[in-house]
Design a protein that fits this description.
Blueprint (H helix, E strand, L loop, with lengths): L6 H14 L5 E8 L4 E4 L6 E3 L15 E4 L7 H4 L2 H12 L7 E5 L3 H7 L5 E6 L9 E9 L2 E8 L2 E7 L4 H16 L4 H10 L8 E6 L2 E6 L4 H14 L4 E5 L4 H6 L1 H5 L7 E4 L16 H10 L5 E3 L6 H5 L8 E5 L5 H14 L4
Parallel strand pairs: 1-3, 4-5, 5-6, 6-7, 11-15, 12-13, 12-15, 13-14
Antiparallel strand pairs: 1-2, 7-8, 8-9, 10-11
Helix pairs in contact: 1-5, 1-6, 5-6
Length: 355
C-alpha cells in the first residue's frame, strides 16, 4: 500500500479488517496501531499487508498481488528530481504486480486515473467523492457528524450503511480503499463495515492527547501542505473552537521545494506557530529556513496570525497566554513536535485558569 499521503492509515485499516475477519495477517505499517499490537503484526495467514514507501523507491523491491495507491503528489524531490519522474516511479511499481493481480487506485485523483491507462494489471477504482460514481467501491450519502462520518458503502458485493470514527474526507477515502482491498480478498461486506465502525486510528494521526483547562490537544503527522490542509479541514468538521496550529517543518529539501505551498497551507487556522525545521537525515541548506514560511505567508495574507518561535522548547510557554477555553491545538509534523503537545498539556495544566 503506497501513495504520497494516507498509506499508513489505509494499511492499518486493511490490517484491522483482516484481523477482524479472522484471517491472521502479517502487517507492517509505519505507525503504532493499538488494535494490531504496534507497528508490526506477525500472523500465520497467507496475507502480508505492507506499507511501501516511494521516498527512495524501496517499493520497487516488492512484487505485490494487490497494490493500492492513494495519490501521487510532489514530494521527496531530493531523490526523484521532478514530479514527472515520481509518477514514472509509481508506474514502475504498479508494473511489478504479479500476473492476475490488481491495482487499487483512488478514482478521486486525476493523476491516478491517468496512470490507470498505463497499468497492465486489472484496475479497481475507489472513491469518496460524489463525482466518481464510476468507481467500483465508493462512499455515497456522506454525512459528517463531528469526529465521525456516516456514509453508504457501495461495492460490487452490495451496499451497506457504514460509520467511520475518524474525521475528514481523506480518512473516508482511506476507508473505502481499505474496503476495496478487503473485498478483493473475499472479506464479507458486513465484516468490513463492522471493522471500520470500530477502527480507532494510528498514533500521531489526529491523535487526541488530552484536554486541560478547556483546551483540547491533538497531534498529527501531517508534514506536507496537502496533509496540513486535510487535517485542518477535518478539525473544522469536528470542532467549533479556534484552531491553534503548531507546525514543525520536516526536511530542508521539502521546505525548499514546497515553500509556497506551505505558506498557503494554514489559511484555515486561527493562530499558527512555526518552529525550526526538523532535519532528519539532511544537513542544512543555505537560505532555507522555517522563518521563510512565515515570511511568505504574511506576504500573501498580511492579516494572518502566524509567528515563528524558536527553539521548539519555547513554543508551549509562548502559546499558553494566548489560549482560551474551547481552543483546539494541533501539533503537526513528522519530527518530534509531539513533545510540544505533551509539554503544553503539562504546563497549561499547571498554569490553571490564570492562563
Amino acid at each position: 500500500m503506497t501513495g504520497t499521503h494516507g498509506k499508513t492509515t489505509v494499511c492499518a485499516m486493511i490490517g484491522v479488517i483482516l484481523q477482524d475477519a479472522g484471517r491472521d495477517p502479517t502487517v507492517l505499517v509505519g505507525g503504532e496501531v493499538d488494535a494490531l499490537g504496534g507497528n508490526a503484526r506477525l500472523g500465520e495467514g497467507p496475507e502480508v499487508v505492507a506499507e511501501a514507501c516511494e521516498a527512495y523507491e524501496g517499493y520497487l523491491d516488492l512484487e505485490p498481488e494487490i497494490a493500492l495507491v492513494t495519490n501521487i503528489e510532489a514530494d521527496h524531490l531530493d531523490h526523484h528530481g521532478t514530479e514527472a519522474a515520481l509518477r514514472e516511479s509509481f508506474r514502475r511499481f504498479l508494473a511489478r504486480i504479479t500476473p492476475g493481480g490488481t491495482a487499487v487506485l483512488c478514482w478521486d485523483r486525476p493523476e491516478l486515473r491517468a496512470l490507470a491507462e498505463r497499468v497492465e494489471a486489472r484496475v479497481v477504482g475507489y472513491s469518496a467523492s460524489p463525482e466518481s460514481a464510476q468507481a467500483d467501491y465508493r462512499a455515497e450519502a456522506i454525512a459528517p457528524e463531528g469526529t465521525r462520518s456516516r456514509f453508504r458503502l457501495v461495492t460490487p458485493a452490495g451496499e451497506r450503511d457504514a460509520t467511520l470514527s475518524a474525521p475528514g474526507q481523506h480518512n473516508l477515502a482511506n476507508a473505502v480503499g481499505a474496503a476495496a482491498v478487503a473485498g478483493i480478498l473475499g472479506v464479507p461486506l458486513d465484516t468490513i463495515v463492522g471493522a471500520l465502525a470500530e477502527y480507532r486510528g494510528v498514533a500521531r494521526r489526529f491523535e487526541r492527547l488530552g484536554e486541560v483547562n478547556g483546551v483540547l490537544v491533538i497531534d498529527d503527522y501531517a508534514h506536507h501542505p496537502t496533509e496540513i490542509r486535510a487535517t485542518l479541514a477535518a478539525a473544522r468538521q469536528a470542532f467549533r473552537g479556534r484552531l491553534v496550529v503548531v507546525f514543525q517543518p520536516h526536511l530542508y529539501s521539502r521546505t525548499r521545494d514546497l515553500l509556497d505551498d506551505f505558506a498557503a497551507a494554514f489559511d484555515d487556522a486561527d493562530i499558527t506557530i512555526i518552529t525550526d525545521i526538523y532535519p532528519a537525515r539532511e544537513a542544512p541548506i543555505p537560505g532555507v529556513s522555517a522563518e521563510a514560511i512565515v515570511t511568505r505567508a504574511r506576504a500573501r495574507n498580511p492579516e494572518q496570525e502566524i509567528d515563528f518561535v524558536s527553539p521548539k522548547e519555547a513554543v508551549a510557554r509562548h502559546l499558553i497566554p494566548r489560549l482560551q477555553a474551547g481552543d483546539v491545538v494541533l501539533t503537526l509534523g513528522a519530527g518530534d513536535v509531539d513533545m510540544v503537545a505533551r509539554e503544553l498539556l503539562r504546563e497549561h495544566g499547571c498554569a490553571g485558569s490564570a492562563a
